[in-house]
Amino acid sequence: MAGRLQGEASAYLRQHAGNPVDWWPFGDEAFSEARRRNVPVFISVGYAACHWCHVMAHESFEDPVTAAYLNENFVSIKVDREERPDVDAVYMAATQAMTGQGGWPMSVFTLPDGRTFYAGTYFPPRPVQGMPSFRDVLEAVASAWNDRPGEVRESAAQLAAHLASAQQGNRRLLGPVLDTGLDAGDDAADATAAQHVLSAAVETLAGLEDRQFGGFGGAPKFPPSTVLRFLLAHAAAGGSTAAEAGALADRTLGAMARSALYDQLEGGFARYTVDRRWAVPHFEKMLYDNVQLLSLYAQWARTALGAGDRRLALRVTRETADWMIRRLRVEEGGFASSLDADTLIQGHRVEGGTYVWTPEQMREVLDPEHADAVLGLLDLESGNMAAHGGTGSTLHFGRVLSAADEGLWLRHRPSLAAARNLRPQPERDDKVVAGWNGLAVAALASAAVVLSDAGEAGEAGRILRAAGDAASYLLRVHRTGATLRRVSHDGHAQGIEGLLEDYAGVAEGLFALYAATGDEHWYTEAESLVLAAENRFRTAGGLQDTAVRPNELVNAQGSQAAADPLDGPTPSGAALFAGVLLTYSAYSGSLRHRALAQSLLKHVEVVGAQAPQAAGWAMSVLQFLLDGPRELAVTGTDAGAVAELLRAARDAGGPGLVIASRIAAPRSAGAVFETRVPLLQGRDPGDAPAVAYLCRGMVCRRPVSSAAELQALITGE
Question: Which of 318, 363, 593, 619 could anchor a disulfide with 230, C-beta 3.0 to 4.6 Å?
């Protein structure tokens, strides 16, 4: 085999470099080869932490007979969905259109021009329960290609037309992307209508809540991260449904933190659970899940009503940030994409093999005097893996622990963690994804600030340094001029230009890091990315997720691409972009960028009340817009006094507060107050220790100099 995947950034692709299948990476060369040979293209899409991707690889792609048939009759392309979400999105839409469902591994068959004519997901090596074997599928596709080429091409044309129509639907849903107009606060009728939609979304979510176990819906159960972001923002804003929103968020965040979704030994969250009790996770740990959840628990640590919940939220914040730094941080400062669901044990991949325990294994580790009491804290029965083809149980509580019970667990947990660290560990996908790392910077900055405000200065400083290191890595490795690359590996950027979600995600992180540190370098870098994204992804026809699309994807879904405004496991690029545009407008005073942000939120009016889980990030941005957002400028000559005002504001201001701060030299020293941040311009404190200026919708209140006055201004609005 040619070994074309050996040098790829993606661990998933490198895992397949030694297969007997003659894999190609996605690109023009592979499709040109298919045209030269006049054979169809087989595209296999997955990701490194995917359990069933490994299963299909072992059963089929490592089988010499199956590989020989593939090599003779197809050009085979291997795609990492995390590296190429643009490819994944197009062919996932095709798969769902053909089969009514989707998932990974995804198996797609296309013409040499990229148009799909057959698709599915996992295929077993032998027919099972009505599912054809992979070899049966290959033979049927090859037969159709050779014997019925007209039907194959007609099917591909019909599907491409269908996908093109879906793109038009996205364009209509997103609406026209404007750069002029009034903001929501200037139009009382629009603001009232938006508030009604957001309140209706809360009521819809209340109807979907699993009141017994927390979260929304049944099995499988995923962390509803973008929805929780909206609920916390809505609760902080006040109003008729604020209390209900806060209660929904509290119950879900509490349930997840006590469950097997959360790693009770060292922190970090799994991708999802296969049951509604949150007891049996699908064990892969994804960076994109954990950065969103870290931000949420940092916010919950400020807003949770009960002392126990606040203590729990702080612990999850601290542990998850620490887990990210220890397990996912790469040598150069960025963060790896994931840890695998499987562990290689004695030559076999075992799903969750690192994480599950039998009671006997725990007793071997625990102090005999306290072993019964510790085991009594855990709900080992609901987490029993036997019903899911495994052995042992997951470690989780399934109930609220008393302070004494929590103390017992925390005293004995280190011995279990140390023993687990001696086991084989899951593999790590070391590719660094720009957008996810941007959200990691934002999450770590938020975690550092809340831990600092809680009196944990040492831990906060370590976490904030990690955020700064990751931000520096992104700017040093992923950015060349005004262009941002999506992925890197071993400190070198590779592959495609970043997507809209990458530009916006990195800007989100840099703005958060500026708010946490007051270092204006981060502000100016965030500003440059926002302006670059506006230039790269806005077209005469609207907004696009990609700046450059391969011809094969154009063929597969029509020429009129549009940004998808709906959230998936990560926030949509459009929603992220709306958020950073709004933040930038608050810092810069740009009404044009505020109007552009507002125009990107029009789809909330359509989907917010009916399908809030698809628009959580956009709804949170809309909530911030309706709240002003509130802009806070704090300057002064005394770093301690400035920090006190900032701490008071964060405790009172909610997640939508935009913060700018600067320590100034006393005027008596002859220094000139200079700043590159428009929100701070004209805020010379003179010789005052600290002065705060609170603004809303770019209209400012009188300056105050005490924490009590500032909190009164914030809470009194």
Answer: 619
**What is the β-pairing status of strands 281-282 and 342-345?**
unpaired
Q: CA angle at residue 547 from 541 to 550, to 5 degrees?
A: 105
Q: At what angle do helices 591-599 and 573-588 cross, to 10 degrees?
A: 160
pLDDT score, position 480: 93
- pLDDT tens-digit readout, 74-92: 999 999 999 999 999 999 9
Query: Residues in the chain with pLDDT < 70?
Result: 1-2, 177-187, 541, 560, 668-670, 717
Rounded to whole angstroms, how far apart are CA atoms 401 and 403? 6
Calculate helix-pair angle for 307-323, 403-421, nearest 10 degrees.
10
Question: Residue 25: enclosing H or E segment and its boundaries?
Answer: strand 23-25
Phi and psi dihedrals of 59, rounded to 5?
A: -75, -35
522 with 587: CB under 8 angstroms?
A: no
Q: Which amino acid is at 169?
A: G
Strands 41-46 and 106-110: antiparallel
Task: Quickly list DSSP for 225-256.
Answer: HHHHHHHHHHHHH-STTHHHHHHHHHHHHHHH
DSSP 312-369: HHHHHHHHHHHHIIIIIB-TTS-B-SEE-SEEEETTEEEETTTT-B-HHHHHHHS-TT
Beta bridge partners of 209: 216
Residue 680 near residue 648, CB atoms below 8 Å? no
Torsion sign (Cα): 672, 673, 678, 683: negative
Instruction: Please give the helix or strand (H or E) that residue 43 lies within, else none.
Output: strand 41-46
Give the burial class of 676: count Cβ atoms within 10 A of its Cβ; 0-12 exposed, 13-18 middle, 19 or more buried.
Answer: exposed
The DSSP bridge pattern shows strands 75-80 and 23-25 to be: parallel
Q: Where does residue 489 rank: exposed (0-12), middle (13-18), buried (19+ CB within 10 A)?
A: buried
pTM over 0.85: yes
Dist. CA 570–CA 105, nearest whole Å: 19
**HSE-up (13 A, CA, CB side) for residue 117:** 25
For residue 29, CA distances in Å to 317, 572, 667 come to 46, 30, 64
The residues, ordered by sequence, that sit 6+ positions from 138 with a Cβ below 8 Å of its Cβ are: 42, 66, 69, 70, 73, 74
| Pairing assessment for the beta strands 75-80 and 41-46 based on DSSP bridges | parallel
Bridge partners (DSSP) of residue 433 are 487
Cα(90)–Cα(115) distance, integer angstroms:
10
Q: How many CB atoms lie within 10 A of CB 64?
A: 10
Please tell me what DSSP assigns to residue 679. Answer: G
Pair of tokens at residue 203: 């009521």
SS3 106: strand
pLDDT of residue 184: 41
